[in-house]
Amino acid sequence: MSWFSKKKMNEENLNNEDILEDILDENGEKIPVFDKRKFNSEGERVNSEDETPNRNVKSMRETELENKLRAETERREAAEAKLVGVQAKFEEVKNNLEKETAEMRQRLMKTLEERAKQGQANFVMTLLPVLDNLNLAVKASETDSSFEHLLVGVKGTARSFEQALMNVGVEPIASIGADFNPEFHEAVEMVETDAENDGKIVGEFSRGYKFGERLLRPARVQVGKGKVQTAGE
Q1: What domain range is 202 assigned to?
Q2: How many domains are there within the chain?
Q3: Is 71 inside a domain boundary?
Q4: Which tens digits make up the pLDDT trace of 162-219?
């Protein structure tokens, strides 16, 4: 085969859509083969429509993993956004609660202070009649120096003062004739008495008082002790 014939055959093969895989020249040597490739009129090679590089082909497994990754990313971002919203709401509720607690504490302290002042004012008001009685006793002693009249005035003042204490909840502790109770009585002196008065209070040096269930001060008392009888008595 001549060189011209071989060139012409090659040109015809380049224009064909499909080229044979094995073409030999006159010497039995293989001619370069272009399988299933197209060439334009200028001899440039053009990829066929069904030819796609292998590196761009994704398997179904890769596509599935990418979809799962995308879904997981979206879920995580949504969870983070929700967490931020919940945290912001928590901070808002916390701040409101702290503000309300502070305001409630201030109102409570103010109420307690007002109650304490009112209690003090009520106590002072109960003592005013006592002061009036003292002033009357002093005035009466200036015009009448009789001891009896002065004694009557002092007793009246003492009774009014004790009544004022009772009006605010202060109660005297029963002493004379009662059994000795170390919770309310303080034994100052022991005296011999008959057997029936053993352990009983027979005298009072100062009265004790309590406020509700709280002991203000114990009564200072004299306690009887029964005589020990001998065999000859």
Answers
A1: 170-228
A2: 2
A3: no
A4: 888 888 888 999 999 999 999 999 999 999 888 888 889 999 999 999 998 899 999 9
